[in-house]
Amino acid sequence: MPEPRLATPPDAAEIARLRSENILSEPLDEAWLTTCTEQLALRLRDGGDARAYVVDSPTGGLATCAPGLVHAVLPAPKYPKGLAVRIHAVATDPAHRRNGYAKAALAKLLDHLERDGVTLYELYASAGSAPLYEQLGFASDPALMRMTRLPASVGGSGS
Questions:
Q1: Within a domain: residue 150?
Q2: Does some domain include residue 143?
Q3: Is 152 part of a structural domain of the chain?
Q4: What is the mean pLDDT of the segment spanning 8-33?
Q5: How many Cβ atoms from other residues are within 10 Å of residue 13's Cβ?
Q6: I need a surface site. Which of 1, 17, 110, 148 has the fewest CB within 10 A?
Q7: CATH code, domain with 100
Q8: Residue 72 confidence (pLDDT) above 80
Q9: pLDDT score of 106
Q10: pLDDT by residue (tens digit) across 50-71?
Q11: Pairing of strands 91-92, 83-87
């Protein structure tokens, strides 16, 4: 199995593609793919808030990506350093599924984040991906409910 590696800014386009094609309910158009690529490339630079591990596809591009976005939160006993990460868009190209790539990339990401001092890990999981996350120590929290809100100016209903 190819070894997961730390993503760099040039990987941003492939991470955005994997997210668009495999995670989002509606794939992004070229303009949005460009926007996501540009923003992620900046965030993957040294000192940026994005960390990702990827597995290269033997046929070119990426087979898998496991990105996370680090942010500050108010500290608490379970996360005393006040650093949290939202694991964001773990995706595997369909041709490379069931090879352990996502698990390997996510395990490397979690190790890296722990070394960086992150003490709170959050993600949204589909029913199909929940077993993978549970194998890596994630647990559902019945006290939490995912809610989203979009301002009317970016896709909500408005007058």
A1: no
A2: no
A3: no
A4: 96
A5: 18
A6: 148
A7: 3.40.630.30
A8: yes
A9: 96
A10: 999 999 999 999 999 999 999 9
A11: unpaired
What is the band of 147 on the pLDDT scale with cuts at 50, 70, 90?
Answer: confident
Buried b (16+ CB within 10 A) or exposed e, 57-84: beeeebbbbbbbbbeeeeeeeeeeeebb
First to last CA, the chain: 53
Query: Is 85 among the domain residues?
Result: yes
Residue of 122, 104, 111 whose CA lies nearest to 65: 104
CA distance 105 to 63: 10
Q: What is the mean pLDDT of residues 134-140?
A: 90
> Which contiguous run of DSSP H or E holds residue 149?
none
* Close Cβ partners of 100 (under 8 Å, ≥ 6 residues apart): 1
DSSP label of 90: -
Question: pLDDT tens for residues 94-107?
Answer: 999 999 999 999 99
Token pair in block for residue 149: 């809100």
pTM: 0.89
Contact 69, 86 (CB under 8 A): yes
